[in-house]
């Protein structure tokens, strides 16, 4: 046989992956294997789940014998599927949801009864199942029971009993005196206990009335979380696109770096020339200002241009003409406003 190092690694890798998948599946479904797992699965109907969850323990006489495999709704009732191993379940067995810890954990307690074995295909009916007692209902019943008591008569009865046994031995008298003190305490605290129980009754009623609002609040919270999740995805996409854009811009700058460098150098030289000739530019702008003002005055009176020519005709040419002596006395000066020379 060839050594492994000389064989084709592809089939070896495929076989290794298949073996790993098989081992993982076996480990995941170990409880269903006939040797190391197994067991018998039964079902039971309950009026409510009462906090029982999948993987909760199943106990018989306080000993763990299995676990709950499924909790589901079945035609208005709660159907609990549980698997047990190495334990006998009779056709009259009783199933109850019990409290495991003070933190509210629950487990399924089975009481095996009956003369024959329970058929796994037959569901244990609600007549043979129990749920934990409702604490709210207990407070309501306590409030109604306390409200029906006549505490004054109870206190009077205890006082009559104490007076009747006043000549009895000291131990009995002390016990009766304690009963009297208890009756007085109950009587003095009657109003407070009644208010407390009425308050708890109103509280439970208010919570029951607001159940719809609580459900709407939870639904709205779920919608809010879903919207935040969608916004998170949109922001994530925006950041990813921004990062891709920055990479493209960096690549663009790098590709155009050879072309941009001469252009930036030329722009720098032009800027330096303008800075060096700033004084000449200021002087040119100061000189051009009055020139353009005069030009604007000459062409701003209509569709013509105002002009004044002086010295074009000498005084000798005007002699013996109507314009003789009509030359400016002090050289070529433009006429003043108002038509005066």
From TrEMBL:
Residue span, Mce/MlaD domain: 39-112
A GO CC annotation given for this chain: extracellular region
Pfam families per UniProt: Mce4_CUP1 (PF11887), MlaD (PF02470)
Protein name: Phospholipid/cholesterol/gamma-HCH transport system substrate-binding protein
Transmembrane segments: none
Coiled coil: none
Region (Disordered): 321-341
Record-annotated Mammalian cell entry C-terminal domain positions: 120-302
């Amino acid at each position: 046989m060839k050594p492994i190092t000389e064989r084709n690694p592809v089939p070896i890798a495929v076989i290794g992956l298949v073996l790993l998948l098989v081992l993982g599946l076996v480990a995941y479904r170990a409880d269903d294997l006939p040797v190391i797992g197994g067991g018998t699965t039964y079902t039971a109907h309950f009026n409510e789940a009462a906090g029982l969850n999948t993987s909760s323990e199943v106990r018989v006489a306080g000993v763990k014998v299995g676990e709950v495999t499924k909790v589901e709704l079945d035609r208005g009732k709660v159907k609990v599927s549980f698997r047990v191993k190495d334990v006998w379940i009779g056709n009259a067995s009783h199933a109850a949801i019990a409290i495991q810890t003070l933190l509210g954990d629950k487990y399924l307690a089975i009481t095996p009864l009956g003369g024959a074995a329970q058929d796994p295909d037959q569901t244990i009916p609600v007549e043979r199942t129990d749920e934990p007692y409702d604490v709210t209902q207990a407070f309501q019943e306590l409030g109604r029971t306390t409200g029906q008591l006549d505490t004054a008569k109870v206190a009077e009865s205890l006082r009559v009993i104490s007076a009747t046994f006043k000549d009895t031995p000291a131990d009995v008298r002390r016990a009766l005196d304690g009963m009297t003190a208890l009756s007085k305490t109950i009587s003095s605290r009657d109003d407070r206990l009644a208010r407390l129980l009425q308050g708890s009754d109103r509280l439970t009623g208010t919570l029951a009335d607001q159940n719809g609002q609580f459900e709407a609040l939870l639904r709205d919270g779920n919608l809010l979380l879903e919207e935040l999740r969608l916004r998170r995805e949109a922001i994530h996409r925006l950041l990813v696109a921004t990062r891709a854009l920055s990479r493209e811009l960096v690549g663009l700058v790098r590709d155009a770096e050879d072309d941009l460098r001469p252009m930036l150098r030329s722009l720098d030289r032009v800027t330096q020339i303008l800075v060096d000739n700033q004084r000449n530019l200021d002087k040119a702008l100061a000189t051009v200002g009055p020139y353009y003002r005069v030009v604007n005055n000459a062409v701003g009176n209509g569709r013509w241009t105002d002009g004044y020519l002086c010295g074009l005709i000498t005084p000798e040419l005007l002699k013996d003409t109507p314009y003789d002596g009509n030359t400016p006395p002090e050289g070529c000066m433009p006429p003043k406003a108002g038509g005066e020379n």
